[in-house]
Structure to design on (251 residues):
């Protein structure tokens, strides 16, 4: 369940900054932004919507986790704007490990470290790490380090220690660049216009055709003949346009 951030300067932070928590952990949810009144809400696993901490006097809501606190949390301003959305998972097995992974999406190119923790021991070694149920690390290191995150690193992660597995958590990767290159948008536009011109030329050649029978196949044949002798000019024009567009945007 996702809720878009409607205010770029607003956010929801979680302390400690991890998705998974043990039961009875103290977890602080802080709403940050240019609003004077906040509410924290959650959408639980049973499909119900709850208000957390009631009508807050400050910007921080502290909960002491139980299994029922596994949910999606977000902030809501006094005027009804939704700010952020984070997943929190509560480990019900007191003897099992939890995966320590970031609550918020990781920016593409940034570094990230995932680790495995027990309630009684924060640093574990000889841990198995899985990505989308595939074993990706099994050695004496206690952390899974990714020096430069890419979109392919997005997915579900979990850890295994001493035969016990953590719950799995989704790690999101945020792409900083534009979703579509302006160069390719312009190239697409040029190609679209070129296609229209070609269709108009085809119609013109058909209308000028001297064929008296098999009119359509005849005009197609003439058009191919026409393109054969003019193709190099069209290719050179398209290539020149591509280079010109690239130079205009990136220089």
């Amino acid at each position: 369940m996702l809720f878009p951030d409607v205010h770029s300067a607003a956010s929801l932070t979680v302390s400690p900054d991890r998705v998974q928590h043990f039961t009875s952990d103290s977890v602080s949810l802080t709403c940050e932004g240019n609003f004077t009144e906040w509410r924290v809400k959650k959408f639980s696993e049973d499909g119900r919507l709850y208000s957390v901490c009631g009508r807050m006097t400050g910007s921080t809501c502290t909960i002491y986790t139980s299994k029922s606190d596994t949910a999606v949390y977000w902030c809501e301003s006094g005027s009804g704007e939704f700010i952020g959305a984070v997943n929190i998972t509560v480990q019900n097995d007191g003897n099992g490990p939890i995966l320590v992974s970031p609550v918020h999406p990781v920016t593409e190119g940034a570094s990230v470290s995932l680790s495995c923790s027990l309630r009684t021991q924060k640093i574990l070694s000889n841990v198995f790490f899985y990505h989308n149920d595939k074993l990706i690390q099994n050695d004496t290191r206690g952390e899974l380090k990714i020096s430069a995150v890419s979109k392919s690193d997005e997915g579900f992660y979990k850890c295994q220690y001493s035969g016990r597995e953590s719950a799995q958590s989704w790690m999101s990767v945020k792409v900083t660049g534009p979703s579509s290159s302006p160069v390719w948008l312009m190239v697409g536009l040029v190609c679209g216009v070129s296609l229209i011109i070609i269709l108009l030329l085809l119609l013109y050649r058909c209308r000028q055709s001297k064929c008296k029978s098999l009119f359509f196949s005849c005009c197609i044949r003439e058009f191919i003949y026409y393109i054969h002798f003019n193709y190099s000019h069209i290719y050179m024009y398209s290539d020149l346009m591509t280079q010109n567009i690239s130079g205009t945007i990136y220089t």
